Amino acid sequence: MRFNWREILGPALTTATALTAFLVDRHLVPVPNPAPLFVCIVALASSISGIASGMISAAIAVVCSAAFFLNHRATPGYDMSDLARMLMLAATAAGTAVITGLLRKKWIDAFAWEQKHHATAARLASALDQVDIGIVRAPNSSTAPSAIISRCPTNRQIAGRRSSR
Length: 165
Description:
The chain contains 5 helices and 2 strands. By secondary structure, it is mostly helical. The protein has a two-stranded antiparallel sheet.
């Protein structure tokens, strides 16, 4: 069974970052708020594999941030500022996942449209090269109008003359 590394990368990187932040905070030095790093990971996940992976990474980021700040006070628990911070992280991470995922989709659609039109242009150029009635095609320009001229050499004959010079 093959795993699609693009879909797994975002959630795995979010989880690894959260675990690293937990371990460093508990055993070495105090760690500042990892939420900005989580938002960057959500953007990366969404741009690599789409909205679904970005939203999963955003959910992991919010849950891990909530767990990270649970014991960061003298008494365990949350107050209103912690809840506001979690709501801001949730909105920011979800918005980042959606916007970046939509940009990725538009980029993929534009790339597919370009490939389709290049294939059409290649088929038309091939068809023009096979016609023997003298269709003249402007060199190096796929947008220039073509003209039909009677009794002129074909494109293959013209290309042969150019290469023999």
